[in-house]
Amino acid sequence: MLGRREVFRKVTGSCRSALRLVRAASSQAEVPLTAEHYAVKRGDYAQLTELDVQEFHSILSEGEGGGERVVSDPATVAPHNVDWLHNVRGQSQLLLRPRTTREVSRILAHCNNRRLAVVPQGGNTGLVGGSVPVFDEIILSTSLMDKVISLDQTSGVLVCQSGCVLETLSNMLEEKGLIMPLDLGAKGSCQIGGNVSTNAGGLRLLRYGSLHGTVLGLEVVLADGTVLNALSTLRKDNTGYDMKQLFIGSEGTLGVVTAVSILTPPLPNSTNVAFVGCAGFTEVREVYTKAKTMLGEILSGLLSSWTERSWTLC
Ligand SMILES: Cc1cc2nc3c(=O)[nH]c(=O)nc-3n(C[C@H](O)[C@H](O)[C@H](O)COP(=O)(O)OP(=O)(O)OC[C@H]3O[C@@H](n4cnc5c(N)ncnc54)[C@H](O)[C@@H]3O)c2cc1C
């Protein structure tokens, strides 16, 4: 029997190595510019000026590391212009790294007034190019928004900023006998805000359900800088419209997620993993049906792979 960590490493490792090979095959400079590769037209947005950059400096000048949070050095911005798979490349000249919701709000209010385009970026592990600019959009990175706001060990409700890395949260919870309801191969880099914005599934979905169920509340900054506080920690909340659902999976098109309230279940006392050899896909389906019937809600995931291809059912 393999230990839990070993198993996760095996399951996610093969996927990661395949993706790493794809990445290694092209350097950032070789990645085609999205604007040249696809027939897309830049929207009617303003061009960034020195006055805009000065405004961002004044917004992000407070607190520690003020200057470094307005990044225009091309070498530093370059990796943020390229997606994880090295498929698409934008031409942003500016990366902003807020630490607080108020800073995000002031940045977006300014961009909205000036008609400057913005792309939110979490861990930049998305596989569909949504986290990088298409043209010269300003990149708004949440990577410095990495604070845990509260953890109620009785209810298991965790509230944190959106830039917390999934693996960091998992490790922190594990020490307290809790578990994140999602786990995926990109956990060392992806952020909870990115997970919410992509409605990430991952390896624990069969057991704990999708983020539409486990996310209890969100704080989001809308395009004009308005802060929408829907950061409920209540599990049984049947009051009015459930606004947060609109933002789960909306890939930053409706606003920037700045904080997340999420239900974290108890860490299971034991984890068992079975490797089953199947003759074909029909048998895989039979194993899946049987496992669901016999194991019920304790089944966390079922990953199926063979020599040439692999697919997940979890
Ligand atoms: C090895 C590997 C394994 C993966 N496994 C899975 C898997 O099992 N299941 C799965 O669903 N995905 C998987 N992915 C894809 C990816 O990791 C997920 O989509 C992840 O949720 C993205 O998080 P991120 O922080 O990297 O977001 P990013 O890639 O930075 O952004 C993704 C999208 O969300 C938007 N966004 C990011 N942060 C915010 C925010 N705070 N507010 C508003 N919008 C925001 C971006 O604009 C972009 O549109 C995998 C990727 C890799 C590389």
UniProtKB/TrEMBL annotation:
Keyword flag Acyltransferase: no
InterPro entries: FAD-bd_PCMH, FAD-bd_PCMH-like_sf, FAD-bd_PCMH_sub1, FAD-bd_PCMH_sub2, FAD-oxidored/transferase_4, Oxid_FAD_bind_N
Pfam families, per the entry: FAD_binding_4 (PF01565)
Cofactor needs: FAD
Keywords: Oxidoreductase
GO molecular function per UniProt: FAD binding; oxidoreductase activity
Name of the protein in question: D-2-hydroxyglutarate dehydrogenase, mitochondrial
Organism the protein comes from: Geodia barretti (Barrett's horny sponge)
